[in-house]
Design a protein that fits this description.
Layout: H1 2-13, E1 23-26, E2 33-37, E3 40-44, H2 59-82, E4 89-97, E5 103-111, H3 117-127, H4 131-138
Antiparallel strand pairs: 1-2, 2-3, 4-5
Length: 148
């Protein structure tokens, strides 16, 4: 209960409401972090080889999961509006490095139902229009402040 109260106090001290805000808390011992956003909670960790406990996804895996889930949700929303029966949508995202050591995402999308070539072409465009894809593709400025 004390831990929940601590999170509540941190959230209350933030100056403005932002539905996209997340707060990550990493205690003094270990790397396991609890991430909260509104009423949702998830854990993030590192593998044992990096000093973590391997109890949750790594930050990089979480970033890939944002792209994968946003893609599948965007495709489902679009297919529902079009009344297309895609079946199960599966999106695999890998964070890789090219020959110049630049990071890039490789995304593979599959559907359990058979689609026409026209549907596949349209869904390719829709996948590239998912909000997280757009954010990652254009890059962003990060402003950091130490507040205490």
């Amino acid at each position: 209960m004390k831990q929940r109260l601590f999170h509540y106090q941190i959230i209350q001290c933030m100056e403005k409401n932002n539905e996209n805000r997340v707060i990550a808390i990493t205690k003094e011992n270990g790397l396991l972090s609890e991430v909260t956003s509104n009423e949702h909670v998830l854990l993030v960790d590192e593998p044992e080889s990096l000093g973590g406990t391997n109890k949750a996804m790594t930050p990089s895996q979480l970033l890939c999961s944002s792209l994968a889930s946003c893609t599948s949700i965007t495709l489902r929303m679009y297919s529902n509006r079009k009344s297309w029966k895609l079946g199960v949508i599966s999106v695999q995202v890998d964070l890789l490095k090219d020959t110049e050591n630049q990071d890039y995402f490789e995304r593979k999308i599959s559907f359990s139902n058979k689609l026409t070539e026209e549907q596949k072409e349209r869904l390719f465009k829709i996948a590239n229009a998912c909000p997280i894809h757009k954010i990652l593709e254009k890059g962003n400025k990060i402003e950091t402040q130490i507040i205490n």
